[in-house]
């Protein structure tokens, strides 16, 4: 599967619709979509040829929005974008799998003017024709203008959103964003803040499938793995990505030895109830009843991160019937036996066993922390040492980061010492024994 870097590419003429598009971009982001963003004014004024940037943006996006405005067709770059977008859409149609949906937005223009090249669109193309007439050597430009005309007519025939002069733009923007949300489903790309996390896409994809968001049943997913393998990060990414699905009906609980179960129960209820000052929990059993009574009719998303005792689940998310239809509960733990001891979860719980990074992923992450700029080993000697160290750590992300950071800037001799004597790393508080410890916990010791 080709991994896209953005969900939506927006083609627009900044002078006509910059403010509108900025708010649209924010709305898309609010629904969990990642938009390709550039300053269109800078693109046209300061860059000699932004074609490569635009092509990459369109090719790397799963869909496009084309905001057609009064002066859209006057811009060479807008027309180039549109032609590329149409080409991308047709190419995906040929595969019988329309992976690049395109939504035209007719911003204070009549769709018929776009389709027939009338009104402001005729004026813009008349200007292009005059430029050609003034220079008979512009044969390539002449051919390009004909292609642009075809693209404009094509987009004019497509079903889209019409924005008239006195439209409620706030409402229209919400409609456009929800239209793209529906067209793309929930399979959005990984947000920018998680781009540096290696191999996140397949993990996110796996989690979304296990959560089975189309099902009306309450569903629980237990994320199981050794310490430092990335359980919390996976839960955070999924939690962010499902923000539009659950809006304010979600809560991320982090198990902390400094927090009592009653305080966690209070935090959970506080996320969902408006009158927080009225939440009075007498004891843990009282908290359980309050959670069940207040949330049993609500569709909620709850993450309980770092579970290490059976009681924590019993008191916080004791049974699927505590929550309303279509609710989802994500539990991260090093000890899978804790999940299997919850008889109330039978038939409702699925496990996701987080795997170690692949050798390529482990090498990339280690080098990112062990060498300046993450460029990799400076010579053959360090290359062999790097391979040995990555093999020793076995793809644990936290250990790779810790040890890579520790060895950053160290001499070749120091690397060799570290490989010979793991205790050196332990003494530096780098916890290479995290691997052994975590495997033991996975075997059932809590």
TrEMBL record:
Ranges where the TIR domain occurs: 4-155
Family annotation (InterPro entries): Apaf_helical (IPR042197), Disease_R_plants (IPR044974), NB-ARC (IPR002182), P-loop_NTPase (IPR027417), TIR_dom (IPR000157), Toll_tir_struct_dom_sf (IPR035897)
One Pfam family hit: NB-ARC
PROSITE patterns in alphabetical order: TIR (PS50104)
The organism's place on the tree of life at top rank: Eukaryota
Record-given protein name: TIR domain-containing protein
Native source species: Citrullus colocynthis
């Amino acid at each position: 599967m080709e991994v896209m870097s953005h969900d939506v590419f927006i083609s627009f003429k900044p002078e006509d619709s910059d403010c509108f598009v900025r708010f649209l971009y924010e709305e898309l982001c609010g629904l969990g979509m990642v938009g390709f963003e550039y300053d269109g004014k800078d693109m046209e004024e300061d860059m000699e040829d932004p074609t490569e940037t635009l092509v990459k943006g369109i090719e790397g996006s799963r869909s496009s929005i084309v905001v057609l405005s009064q002066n859209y067709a006057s811009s060479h770059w807008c027309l180039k974008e549109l032609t590329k977008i149409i080409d991308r859409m047709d190419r995906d149609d040929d595969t019988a799998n329309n992976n690049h949906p395109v939504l035209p937005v007719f911003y204070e223009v009549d769709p018929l003017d776009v389709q027939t090249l009338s009104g402001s669109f005729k004026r813009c193309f008349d200007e292009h024709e005059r430029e050609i007439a003034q220079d008979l050597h512009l044969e390539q430009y002449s051919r390009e203008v004909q292609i642009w005309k075809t693209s404009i007519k094509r987009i004019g025939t497509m079903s889209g959103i019409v924005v008239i002069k006195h439209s409620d733009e706030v409402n229209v923007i919400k409609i456009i964003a929800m239209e793209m949300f529906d067209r793309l489903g929930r399979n959005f790309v990984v947000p920018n803040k998680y781009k540096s996390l290696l191999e996140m896409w397949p993990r996110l994809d796996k989690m979304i499938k296990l959560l089975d968001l189309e099902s009306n049943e309450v569903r629980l997913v237990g994320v199981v793995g050794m310490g430092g393998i990335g359980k919390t990060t996976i839960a955070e990414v999924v939690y962010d990505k499902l923000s539009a699905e659950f809006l304010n009906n979600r809560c991320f609980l982090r198990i902390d030895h400094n927090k009592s179960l009653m305080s966690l129960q209070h935090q959970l209820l506080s996320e969902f109830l408006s009158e927080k000052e009225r939440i009075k929990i007498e004891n843990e059993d009282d908290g359980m009843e309050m959670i069940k009574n207040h949330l049993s009719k609500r569709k909620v998303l709850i993450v309980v991160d770092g579970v290490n005792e059976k009681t924590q689940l019993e008191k916080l998310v004791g049974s699927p019937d505590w929550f309303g239809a279509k609710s989802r509960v994500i539990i991260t733990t090093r000890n899978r036996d804790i999940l299997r001891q919850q008889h109330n979860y039978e038939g409702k719980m699925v496990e996701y066993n987080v795997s170690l990074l692949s050798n390529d992923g482990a090498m990339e992450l280690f080098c990112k922390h062990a060498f300046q700029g993450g460029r990799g080993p400076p010579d053959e000697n360090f290359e062999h040492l790097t391979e040995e160290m990555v093999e020793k750590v076995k793809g644990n992300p936290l250990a790779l980061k810790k040890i890579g950071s520790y060895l950053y800037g160290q001499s070749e001799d120091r690397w060799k010492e570290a490989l010979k004597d793991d205790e050196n790393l332990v003494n530096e508080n780098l916890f290479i024994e995290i691997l052994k410890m975590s495997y033991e916990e996975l075997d059932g010791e809590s």
